[in-house]
Amino acid sequence: MDLTGLKWLQQHQQMVSPEFLQILGSDGREELRKVESYLGNNIYDTIDGCISRTSSFQMEPVKNNEENRVIALGNKRKPEGKRETIEKKKKIKAEDETESSMKENSNMSNTETSSEFLKQDYIHVRARRGEATDRHSLAERARREKISKKMKCLRDIVPGCNKVTGKAGMLDEIINYVQSLQQQVEFLSMKLSFVNPELEFHINELSSMMVDSRSFPLHQQGSLDYSVINSNQTTSLNALKIETSSNWDVHSQCLYNNLRTDSVSSFFSLK
Amino acid sequence: MERQIINKKKRVFSVEPNKIPPSEVFTRKYTSLLVPALKKLNMNKNSSQVNQLTVKHEVDMALALSAQEFAWSRFLLQKLSSSNNPTTTTSSSSSGIRIQERSGKEGGHEDGEIEEKLRELQKLLPGGEEMNVEEMLGEIGNYIKCLELQTIALKSIVQDTT
């Protein structure tokens, strides 16, 4: 089929519709895949025909946005023994799809060609052998893959998830953890409300330091590190690796706004 | 004096935000918001009674304001500002609809269980009910991190005074 197939595609300049794929049959699909990989590999070649074709491929999606398309992606991933893969692109409208599809695709094919095609708003889904290839199930699968990716990320965040397997158990863990964190915050704020009158003393210290140093250049204010708040206990804050930096500048603005003491208000009326 | 301020403001923007780890940024923002807010509370209410609810309010406000790059903080801010004005919010009606849905699905079905748990999780996250599942799962990660940082900050503030 080789060259004739190529020429056919070149002539028609069309994207391949799913009906066409079905007509091709499994053998035809294999052929088509070869053709696609050939096209994909040649994107950076100096063969004129290929270049013109690839450039026109990029233009196409602007016109025909409704169909399923098969676009050559330069698939260099070795197909596993029993798997026959067809790549389809689907247009699914969602806001942050392009990023995830970029990630997926960079995992699937290690070429740079993928970056060209990913400027479009498509999801790259791989249909495996024996699985349905219609639009809805592909969308379902894409969605499920995304969700499982996010669950994996959450595994790293939530402690104690190593033993638990499966979605339900993970979700349980996450719920428990979030609830316990929220309860902790409530408890601490309650404690804070009892302790608050004494807090004033330290806050006064803090604010007076800020007020005095306004006449100095603000980078000196960076020395206002947490030793003012905690003379004894610096361990938990040091764990966050807080260093003096002029990032304080940004926050001192809103800090001063909150203070609203007489000495400061005139200074910051110029916001 | 004005020129000094303008110069300082200029200097503010010269810092490259990429180099500072986000946990640090958050913690600084949080403490710098919360501490003076608490002080203001003390000043305004001259009596020793600082209401627990207002402290919680300030705590939540500080959390929402220091994490403004995330979606849930917007919802939290909305909630906080609406709790000041006691008008009916839309969230109550949406949660009513959700409860109806849930009662229809309880059949020990495995998928239903997972969906139930997802819904519970949505309730925990501020604004979770308005998001779809994928978005919510992403936001939950951020929310957890910010909650952790918040607890650390609160602990250090509390421990300092005792």
TrEMBL record, chain A:
Compositional bias annotation for Low complexity:
103-114
Q: Does the keyword Heme apply?
A: no
A Pfam family of the record is: HLH
Chief location: nucleus
**Residue ranges of domain BHLH in the record:** 131-181
Entry-linked Gene3D superfamilies: Helix-loop-helix DNA-binding domain
Q: Where is the composition biased (Basic and acidic residues)?
A: 77-87
The UniProt keyword set, sorted, is:
Nucleus, Transcription, Transcription regulation
Domain of life of the source: Eukaryota
| Protein's UniProt keywords contain Nucleotide-binding | no
Q: Where is this region: Disordered?
A: 72-114
Location in the cell: Nucleus
What PANTHER family does the entry give? BHLH DOMAIN-CONTAINING PROTEIN (PTHR12565:SF415), STEROL REGULATORY ELEMENT-BINDING PROTEIN (PTHR12565)
Which protein, by its recorded name, is this? BHLH domain-containing protein
UniProtKB/TrEMBL annotation, chain B:
Any one of the GO BP annotations: regulation of DNA-templated transcription
Give me the stretches of Low complexity compositional bias.
82-95
Q: Which UniProt keywords apply?
A: Nucleus, Transcription, Transcription regulation
| Record-linked InterPro entries | bHLH_AtIBH1-like, IBH1-like, IBH1_N
Task: Show the ranges annotated as biased composition (Basic and acidic residues).
Answer: 99-112
Residue ranges of domain IBH1-like N-terminal in the record: 24-83
Region of interest called Disordered, as start-end residue ranges on this chain: 82-112
* Compartment annotation: Nucleus
Any one GO CC term of the record = nucleus
Coarse class of the primary localization is: nucleus
- What PANTHER family does the database record attribute to this sequence? TRANSCRIPTION FACTOR BHLH146, TRANSCRIPTION FACTOR IBH1-LIKE 1
Q: What is this protein called?
A: IBH1-like N-terminal domain-containing protein
Q: Which organism is it from?
A: Brassica cretica (Mustard)
